[in-house]
Design brief:
70% of the residues lie in helices and 6% in strands. The protein is mainly alpha-helical. The chain has one domain. A two-stranded antiparallel ribbon has the order 1-2. Helix 2 packs parallel to helix 10 and helix 3 packs parallel to helix 8. The relative contact order is 0.13. The N terminus is likely disordered.
């Protein structure tokens, strides 16, 4: 399509293609692509966003169902921080847990990533790179799960050698609650949370093209989310790694921090609650329901 325009001092100019700036994402969406109309493109984008969101929510719902079912078998499992699970089973449950808890909170970022893929002209390559991004994001949390498992094994082994640790497991859990609350107030927490709360800024500063770029961006976003929430997940060990109520509360907190307008304030309020509750547990250990998660 040819557009004629008049500019003072320059006469009439002719453009063969026009661009509009997407002010939300800072990307340029090219229009006038032959038979592909803007209306048709927008409808296709909405369908893709709906499909991606539906898949994320279906995976999250299925994972919650698995976790609820698995939690009912806890009585037949071992005691301790890892509840007697081997590495393979622990990591499998951890991945399911991350899908259940983190996919809903990461959905805004994932949908914007898919939109930018579309806007940059990747009309035939939106779905694939988006799931590469999701896979890399999940991989980062899986690696953290592996480190957590090793740390839990080391702590359990140390507790067997030092009886005082076993006798004061609840108070140690209270200390972890206080530590998690204090971390909520640190500059590192605020910086990582800010990245998670502003998907547009992350996209603008971290964009990489192609499948390798999508993988790298997924890892990068995973690092920011890990930096924001890692100590909240450590709380699952003293509270019980299969404690469904604790998982639900943490999911709600992380979602509110990342997606609500007052997310930063919510993080500060959570810090106060964690510190006060941790102090209470240190004074009165019975206030912490260990749920079979003693060392």
């Amino acid at each position: 399509m040819v557009w004629n325009s008049h500019r003072p001092g320059f006469g009439t100019t002719t453009d063969t293609r026009t661009e509009r700036t997407d002010t939300d994402l800072g990307t340029a969406v090219q229009e006038g692509r032959g038979s592909v109309t803007l209306k048709g493109s927008a409808m296709s984008l909405r369908r893709e966003r709906t499909l991606i969101l539906a898949l994320l929510l279906i995976l999250a719902a299925a994972s919650w169902a698995i976790l609820v079912w698995q939690s009912r078998t806890v009585s037949g499992m071992g005691m301790g921080l890892t509840m007697g699970m081997g590495a393979a089973l622990f990591l499998a449950i951890w991945v399911v847990m991350m899908i259940a808890m983190m996919f809903p909170t990461a959905a805004p970022m994932i949908l914007i990533f898919a939109r930018v893929q579309r806007d940059r002209g990747s009309f035939e390559r939106t779905f694939g790179p988006t799931w590469v991004f999701v896979g890399a994001y999940l991989l980062m949390w899986t690696l953290f799960g592996g480190l957590s498992y090793l740390g839990a094994l080391a702590a359990s082994g140390l507790a067997q050698q030092v009886p005082w640790l076993m006798l004061n497991a609840a108070r140690i859990g209270g200390g972890i609650l206080v530590l998690a609350g204090l971390y909520q107030l640190t500059p590192l927490k605020r910086a990582c949370l800010a990245k998670c709360r502003t998907p547009q800024d992350f996209i603008l500063t971290s964009w990489r093209d192609g499948y390798p770029g999508s993988f790298r961006m997924g890892l990068s976003h995973g690092i920011y989310c890990l930096g924001s929430s890692w100590l909240l997940f450590v709380l699952l060990f003293p509270l019980g790694i299969m404690n469904i109520a604790a998982m639900a509360l943490l999911t709600a907190l992380i979602f509110a921090e990342k997606c609500f307008p007052l997310g930063a304030r919510i993080a500060q309020f959570a810090a106060l609650v964690l510190i006060l509750y941790g102090a209470l547990v240190i004074v009165e250990p019975a206030a912490l329901p260990l749920s079979g998660a003693s060392m």
